[in-house]
Amino acid sequence: MPAxxxxxxxxxxxxxxxxxxxxxxVASEPAARSAQSVRRVLSVAPELTQCSLVLRxxxxxxxxxxxxxxxxxxxxGEVRVRVLAASVQFTDxxxxxxxxxxxxxxPPLVLGYDVVGEIDELGPGVSDFQVGDRVADLTVTGSYxxxxxxxxxxxxxxxAHVDSAEAAALVLSWATAYQLLHRSAHxxxxxxxxxxGASGAVGQALLVLxxxxxxxxxxxxxxxxxxxxxxxxxxxxxxNLERAGGLATPDFDAVFxxxxxxxxxxxxxxxxxGGRLIAFGFTQPVQSGAxxxxxxxxxxxxxxxxxxxxxxxxxxxxxxxxxKRHPEWYxxxxxxxxxxxxxxxxxxxxxxxxxxxEVPDAHRRIEAGGLDGKIVICP
Length: 379
Description:
Elements: E1 4-8, E2 14-20, H1 30-33, E3 39-43, E4 49-55, E5 64-70, E6 78-88, H2 90-96, E7 109-110, E8 114-122, E9 134-138, E10 147-151, E11 156-157, H3 164-184, E12 192-196, H4 201-212, E13 216-221, H5 226-231, E14 235-238, E15 252-257, H6 265-268, E16 271-279, H7 283-287, H8 292-304, E17 313-316, H9 319-325, H10 327-342, E18 350-354, H11 359-368, E19 374-377
Parallel strand pairs: 3-5, 12-13, 12-15, 13-14, 15-16, 16-17, 18-19
Antiparallel strand pairs: 1-2, 2-3, 4-5, 4-7, 6-8, 6-10, 6-19, 8-9, 9-11
Helix pairs in contact: 3-4, 3-10, 9-10
């Protein structure tokens, strides 16, 4: 980025921007945050700009840069929102490292898979909302920012009394869990279900929503997380299924696997005849440095398992893929989750609320594992 750039402002005004290198750190934890410095671009006209966290290159979290850029305007059929909450999650790590298959954009880009915001501008043609309404959306990118625009026909209303961070947790993790259960596995009351990665955000949501659906739930987790699994009403088992007692024979109607260890082979072995495996992630292979070619092979093998004459089925679930095919499903499912949250029937667990400048460190912590709940940006 050049040291001085001229941009057109409203009414033809010229804004001069200059680059200033600063170190952003959290004063309360100077030692712990010393490695998370981020470059920043400051503007001489802050009232006409907004701050966002830009990824300059694929790779490590050191590639993030705080940037002041012109405030976006809502276009035809759009609303502009002041961001109240945006989650930081493992999917963002995949995006940051360039390992997310559906990502077509290249750096520089702004990450942020979900958002809850307050509308502060209506674009032409928008009549269903008012300034001040709160809404949520699945965005994939663009939400590590203080302001952004959204398509009005895609957002879901969020009641004013609902906690913004908890609502943000619904948009990806809880919506994924809900659709895994009801759109992909088509679970029935009384069935037995096993969740791998039960202590993670999607795993915890699966345990809670599975019980609301009348399922008998088991959660695979590390022993130190067994109490959390029990607190969510499920039976804990060792995340290493070979060590897990009582699992010598396939005994589950539905197995949900976002870990992907050994290409889902262990979870496939736990599916009974007539049951189904729903895979939805590759956390373990990605953390171990598996190539995109390996991930592609495992996805192909997952499909080939369906031709075996054993009465079992396997499929891979993608929230973005399903939303493209059935956008009305996603909107209805998120509306249902917001309703459950507003009624106090579900309680997404928030590990920490952070500022934009703390996102690089949040990525490091997510990669290290062991978090109990969501990290949410509240800019």
